[in-house]
Amino acid sequence: MGPAFMAIMLFGLSALFAATAGKRLRLMLVGRPTFLFDRIKDRIWTTIEFAFLQKRMPNYKWAGWAHRFIFGGFLILLFRTLILWGRGFDPTFNLFILGPGTFLGHAYEFIKDVTMFLVIGGSAVFLYLRVIKQEARMTKSAEAVLILVIILTMMSTDMAYDGAALALHQKHVMDVCAPDADVGLCDSVTTVVAHLGAKPLQASAVSFDPWLPGGSAFGVLLQDLPPLALVVIAHIGFWTHASLVMIFLNLLPLSKHFHVITAIPNVFLRDLDGPGRLAYAGGTETLMEKVEAAFEAAEEDKPAEQPVGIGRVDDFTWKAILDFYTCTECGRCSDHCPAHRTGKILSPKQLTIDLRDHFYERQEELIANDGSAPPTPAEEEDDDAEEPFQLIGDVIHPDVLWACTTCRACEEQCPVMISYVDKIVDMRRNLVLIKGEMPPELQGPFDGMETNGNPWNMSRMDRGAWSDGLDIPTMADKPDAEVLYWVGCAASYDDRAKKIARSVARLLQAADVDFALLGEEESCTGDPARRAGNEFLFATLAEANAEVLNGYKEQGGVKKIITACPHCFNTLANEYPDFGARFEVVHHSVYLDELVATGKLQPKESVEEKVVFHDSCYLGRYNEVYEQPRNVLRAIPGLQLLEAEGANRKKGLCCGAGGMQMFMEEQNKDRMSVRRSLQLVDTGAQTIASSCPFCTTMLTDGLKAQNKEDEIKQLDIAELLAVACGLEEKRPTELEVAAE
Q1: Best label site of 84, 104, 237, 407, fewest CB within 10 Å?
Q2: Burial of 40 (0-12, 13-18, 19+ CB in 10 A)
Q3: What are the C-alpha distances in Å from 656 to residues 252, 489, 620?
Q4: Using alpha carbons only, what angle is made at residue 465 by residues 460 and 471, rounded to the nearest 5 degrees?
Q5: Strands laid side by side in the 584-587 sheet
Q6: How buried is residue 500: exposed, middle or buried, by Cβ count under 10 Å (0-12/13-18/19+)?
C-alpha cells in the first residue's frame, strides 16, 4: 500500500506533533512544582471511573452518550489504525491475531463496524447541538465542526475501504488476475485484497454479512463498479483513515481538543484530598514571612519563591496549567454556576479559556525565561505606560473573582475534573494580602472577625446569650464533656438562627447527650475570611480555636464536635487538621439521623406538611451529605417530602451566601436567593427545609422578595424534628395566624 509514503507520513507528522506538543509540555512545566503522584491505587480507580467510564458525561443525556460513543470508538478503533498503518508496509498485516477466518478476526470486525456506526451517531448528535440547536453552553467554534467532519469522514471512508476490498475480493479478483489480464491492475487489486486471505474458488456477488455490517453494506453498494474504480475507492478510504489520524493528532495541541491527550492524565493527577480542603498555606508566622518576601519580590519585578496566592502567570502550578489545557469548552461548569446563571460576570468556562489563551499568547516568552513572566511587549515599547501589566485586571477582571460563591457546582459538573475554586481563592488571596484590594463591604466583617471573633463585630460577651434558660454547661464548667456543640457565629448572633440553635440543643438534651458549649471561648472558624482571600485572618482564628479545642481534649473532653453550620463543619473537619486540631466532626443532620435511627429521639407528633429540602453546598457537594437530612425528614410522621427535580442534590442551586457573598452585594438585581427560592416554591411545598443558618437567611430573603414569606415557612430540619418530638410547638405562618 506504499511503504515509502507511509513511512514519510508517519515520521513527518510524528515529528511535527512532537515539536508542537513538546512546546506545550515545556510551557506546562514553567508552573510551580506540586507533587501529585501519591495514592496510586486511588488515582487508577478515579481514572477508570471518570476518564474511561466517563461517569459525569450522562449528566447531559444525549451529549453524554454521544461523547461516550466517540471516546469508546476511538479506543476500539485504535487497533484499526494500527492495522492500517501496518498494511502500509505489509498488505497482509492483521495485527497478528485478527486474520481472516479466525474467531478473533470476525469478532473484531463486527465490534469495529458497530463502533463506527455509534461514532457516526455521536458525531451527528454533536453536529446537531452545535450547528442546528446551537447549544448556548458550548463555545461556537468552526474548529469543533471541522473535527466532527473529520471524524465522520474517517468512519465513512474506512467502511468504504472495506466495502471496495470486499467487492474486489469476492467478485472481481479472479477475472482481473486471469492469465491474459492487465498485470498492473492485477497487482493493484491483489495489494488491496491481500489482508482478506486466499482468493475465492469462484466469483460471487457481495451479500450483507452480519459479521461485517458496515463493510459488507458498502460492498453491496459498490460491487457493480469497475475494478479500477474500486481500487481507487479502496486507496482513498485507506489513506484517508491512515493520514487523518495523524493530521487530527497534530491539530490537538492547537485546539480545545487537546483534552483528547490531557484529559486522562488530568483526571489521574486530580487533588485527592477532597473538595472541602483548600491547600494549606502555612500558619501566621509562615504567612507573614511569605507576604514580606512577596513584597520584596514585587519591588524587584520578579516572582516570589513562595507566592501568596496567584498574582502572576508564573504563580500557577503545572497542574493548574494542565487544567487549562484540558478544558473541553463544553460549558457544563458555567451552565450550573449560580453566578453565571443569574447574569454575573463570572463564567468558569471563560475564566479557564482566558487563562489558557494568555499562556498560549506568551508561550515563547515564558519558555525562554524559564517560567518567569517577562514584561509584555506593550510594557517594553512604552516606558511611560500608566499601569504595568496585571494578570488580575488585564486578563481576569476582579469582579469575575468576587462573583464566586465557592459552591463547587462547576467542579461537580466538569467531566475532566478541572478545579476552579482553588484558583479563584488563590487569586483573591493575592488581591487581599498583597494588593490590599477587596470589595469595600468586606472590611467590616474582616474587622469584626479580628476584633470580636464574628463577622458582625458583636460583643464576644454575648456569644452564649442564645442559650439562656436552657441550662447548658460550658466546657469551662465541664471540661470533660464528650460532645462539644459548636454553635457558630450565625446561630450565636442572628435572631433567626438562634432559634435553630435552641432546637438543636433541646434535641441533644432530649437524647441525653453529654454536651457542652464553648461560649465566649468560641470564635469564627475563619471560613468566610479564607474563602474571601484573607488567609492570614483565617490562620489567626484557626490557631486560636485549635489551641482552645486541644486544651479541652487534653483534659479528656471533646471526643466529638457537632455543628449545625456546614461551613463550620467543613472547616473544622477538613481544614483544622492542618493546624493540629484533629477531631471527629459531625454535622447536626448526620447526628440527628443517628439519634433517630437508634431510638434516642422518637418523632411521634404528626407534621402534616409538604416539605422540600434545600441542599447546602458545603454539606452536599463538599462533603457528600445528601441522604441524612432527608432521613430525618422522612422519619417525621405525616410529613410529605418533595424534591426540586433537576435542581436538587448535586444539581442544587446555591443560595448565594458562600464565599463570603453573605456580606457582599450581588453584581446585579437577579439574586441567587430569589432564583433558588423560586425553584423550591415551584414544587408546591408549604415548607422549605434546610440545614444551614446561612441558607435559612438567604432563602427567607428569597421568599420575601416574592411576597411568599406569609404563606411558606422556612425551617431547619432540627426545628421540624423538635416539633415532631414534642419539644416545640408547630410554628404557624403569618397567614395561619391571621386566619385564626
Answers
A1: 104
A2: exposed
A3: 38, 18, 15
A4: 130
A5: 515-516, 483-486, 560-563, 584-587
A6: buried
With CA atoms as reference, report the closest residue to 711 among 680, 736, 675: 736
Q: How confident is the model at residue 388 (pLDDT cuts 50, 70, 90)?
A: low
Beta bridge partners of 317: 32
pLDDT tens, position by position, 119-148:
999 999 999 888 888 877 777 778 888 889
* Structure confidence by residue, pLDDT tens digits, 27-36: 999 999 988 8
Whole-number pLDDT of residue 11:
95
Chain segment 645-684, per-residue pLDDT in tens? 989 999 999 999 999 999 998 888 899 999 999 999 999 9
* Cα Dmax for the chain: 112
Residues 17-27: what's their mean pLDDT?
Answer: 94
What is the distance between the alpha carbons of residues 337 and 404, in angstroms, rounded to a whole number? 9
**Which cell numbers hold the place of 149?**
467532519
| CB-based contact 408:277 (threshold 8 Å) | no
Whole-angstrom distance, CA of residue 715 vs CA of residue 668: 28
How much is the pTM? Answer: 0.90
C-alpha cell at 153: 469522514
588 has a pLDDT exceeding 90: yes
Pairing of β 610-613 and β 687-690: parallel
Which cell is 133 given? 440547536
Q: Strand 640-642 to strand 584-587: parallel, antiparallel, or no bridges (unpaired)?
A: unpaired
Q: Are 119 and 151 in contact (CB under 8 A)?
A: yes
Return the top range by mean pLDDT from 103-107, 171-175, 398-402.
398-402
Among 586, 516, 504, residue whose Cα is nearest residue 552: 516
Altogether, the residues listed in the chain come to a count of: 740
CB-based contacts of 251: which residues, under 8 Å, 6+ apart?
143, 147, 257
**pLDDT band for position 733 (cuts 50, 70, 90):** low
Backbone φ/ψ region at 181: left (φ over 0), alpha (ψ -120 to 50), beta: beta
Cell of 371: 517560567
d(C-alpha 66, C-alpha 43), whole Å: 26
Closest CA to 77 of 129, 119, 112: 112
DSSP-derived pairing of the beta strands 610-613 and 713-716: unpaired
Mean pLDDT, rounded, of the chain:
90
- Which residues are paired to 562 by β-bridges? 485, 586
Residues 315 and 307 sit within 8 Å (Cβ to Cβ) = yes
> Sheet holding 687-690: strands in order across?
640-642, 610-613, 687-690, 713-716
CA angle 223, 226, 229 (to 5 degrees): 95
Whole-angstrom distance, CA of residue 376 vs CA of residue 432: 24
- Residue 234 cell numbers, joined: 479502496
Distance CA 270, CA 28 (A): 16
C-alpha cell at 291: 507576604
In sequence order, the 6+-apart residues with CB closer than 8 A to the CB of 105 are 94, 97, 98, 99
Q: Give 174 or 380, the one with higher predicted confidence.
A: 174
Residues 621/408, Cβ–Cβ less than 8 Å: yes
Separation between Cα atoms, residue 591 and residue 407, nearest integer Å:
23
Buried b (16+ CB within 10 A) or exposed e, 430-457: bbbbbeeebeeebeebbebbbebbbbbb
Please give the grid coordinates belonging to residue 403: 462573583
Which residues are bridge partners to 642 per DSSP? Answer: 612
